[in-house]
Amino acid sequence: xxxxxxxxxxxxxxxxxxxxxxxxxxxxxxxxxxxxxxxxxxxxxxxxxxxxxxxxxxxxxxxxxxxxxxxxxxxxxxxxxxxxxxxxxxxxxxxxxxxxxxxxxxxxxxxxxxxxxxxxxxxxxxxxxxxxxxxxxxxxxxxxxxxxxxxxxxxxx
Amino acid sequence: xxxxxxxxxxxxxxxxxxxxxxxxxxxxxxxxxxxxxxxxxxxxxxxxxxxxxxxxxxxxxxxxxxxxxxxxxxxxxxxxxxxxxxxxxxxxxxxxxxxxxxxxxxxxxxxxxxxxxxxxxxxxxxxxxxxxxxxxxxxxxxxxxxxxxxxxxxxxxxxxxxxxxxxxxxxxxxxxxxxxxxxxxxxxxxxxxxxxxxxxxxxxxxxxxxxxxxxxxxxxxxxxxxxxxxxxxxxxxxxxxxxxxxxxxxxxxxxxxxxxxxxxxxxxxxxxxxxxxxxxxxxxxxx
Lengths: 157, 287
Hints:
The complex is a heterodimer of chains A (157) and B (287). With 157 residues, chain A is of the alpha+beta class. Chain A has two domains: 76 residues, Ubiquitin-like (UB roll); 65 residues, DNA polymerase, domain 1 (Orthogonal Bundle). Chain A has five helices and five strands, in the order ββαβββαααα. Chain A has a five-stranded mixed β-sheet with strand order 2-1-5-3-4, sandwiched between helices. In chain A, strand 1 and strand 2 form a beta hairpin. Chain A is elongated. The relative contact order of chain A is 0.16. By secondary structure, chain B is of the alpha+beta class. Chain B has twelve helices and 14 strands. Chain B has a five-stranded antiparallel β-sheet with strand order 4-5-10-6-7. In chain B, strand 4 and strand 5 form a beta hairpin. In chain B, helix 10 packs antiparallel against helix 11 and helix 11 packs antiparallel against helix 12. The termini of chain B are far apart. Classes of the chains: A alpha+beta (157), B alpha+beta (287). Chains A and B meet through strand 4 of A and helix 2 and helix 6 of B.
């Protein structure tokens, strides 16, 4: 039996896109394989690690847990949207503070951190740690990542 | 084996009436809310379902209504909305704490109260809080709507009163009187993003130094979220100054039936459930 695909229309990093996909395809796979945006990573594939964090209609979500059909008509932002000509302030802060080591969690950390900053959800270190609790890093011990987030929030290097 | 999206189809109703009609016509279609529970076994190839009923985006299932006596949640109310609501911080602190204990922010942005209930996991974080606040569920089909006490809803492991043509549409919780005692604690492998090994919620009202009303509920210690009715009975009406801790602990052990599984052991769960009850009672004795 073959199931027909749906025409998925959404805005990806500011550009209107449409593509035929299976309705239960994971948004993560659509992003990586159909749109070729491989900045979004697959870590655990079960919503634990946050490596696939993206911003969907203004909400931070795990792209591995969103079926394509539920992204119909949505506005999607991936890590590729963060830098313009220059890196974003948070990306600069990750470089300055050493927030990336092996780098695999970094796209998810940057997307989650950007969302926290944009929604003014971080007031202090405890808030930063709570906000990033869904993003696992096995290298840094989190200190440098939290430092980078707080520095960006306070507008300092 | 991986999930096979190419073998799966999704029914996508545009409103609740359409959803109920599709539910009646295709009882084999698995209702799909925010996907945070179902997408995990699906992607791993462990979900047998091939047809899904997409509920995400149905406006009739969204929204929170506050009246004098009660709060009514649309079934698609997100954990994130519960955690952010100022009234709930004051009146339903257990619900806020348990919503914040469900995964992390990205999960709370997709996970819904109705989905959490329908999924029927004994380890779900919000059900014990809903049990102690005396929640009721609205179950709706083309035949009409009925309200059932949430305490009666789960009938066994992943079994419930929900008929094959019904959907959970609303959850209603009476607003507790001010001055009550609220307790919620979840024990998992780590603070965030861990599935519970044991959780315990309680709500009590004291008067004249005695426990006038008390509800205790637990997660991960039985085939479904449960009320600890034996422990409640041992404590109800007793003086806060001389709570019968040993009798309550003994009754609690008869209330629960934990098992060994990949997250914990029955022995650990029995020990920790008792510790949580004792911790709760220490707080209650001070009220």
